[in-house]
Amino acid sequence: MQTRYSPGLQTCPHCGSGEVHMTVCDGLLERCVIYLWGISPFQCRCCCKRFYRRIVAQEEANPKIA
Predict the structure, then answer these.
(1) How would you classify the pairing of strands 39-44 and 50-54?
(2) Which residues lie across from 42 on neighbouring strands?
(3) pLDDT 10s digit of each residue in the chain, 66 long?
(4) What are the beta bridge partners of residue 21?
(5) In degrees rounded to 5, what are phi and psi of residue 3?
(6) Contact (Cβ atoms closer than 8 angstroms) between residue 47 and residue 11
(7) What distance lies between CA 7 and its chain's CA centroid?
(8) Closest listed residue to residue 47, CA positions, set 9, 24, 19
C-alpha cells in the first residue's frame, strides 16, 4: 500500500478552509515524533496555522466498490 497526500481531503481545524498544504518539519525532534506517530505537518493558506494529520492512503481515499 502506497500512502499519498490527497489535497481534497484535508481541511483546517481552525478556520475550516480546504486550502491546506503539507509543510516541512521544524527540527529533528519533530521529525522523529511525527514519524513514530505516522502523522504529517500541514499549514493553512488562509489563517497560516499549523496542524498535524494522519495522511490518508490513496486506497482509503478512493474505496473500490465490489
Answers:
(1) antiparallel
(2) 22, 51
(3) 334 445 556 788 889 888 898 888 888 888 888 888 888 889 999 998 998 888 765 555 555 565
(4) 43
(5) -95, 130
(6) no
(7) 8
(8) 19
Residue 44 backbone dihedrals phi, psi, to 5 degrees: -80, 135
- What residues contact residue 33 under an 8 Å CB cut-off, 6+ apart? none
Q: CA geometry: angle at 4 spanning 17 and 41, to 5°?
A: 50
SS (H, E, C) the chain: CCECCCHHHCCCCCCCCCCEEECCCCCHHHHHHHHHHCEEEEEECCCCCEEEEECCEHHHHCCCCC
What gap in Å lies between CA 10 and CA 49, rounded to an integer? 14
To the question of pTM greater than 0.70 for the whole model, the response is: no
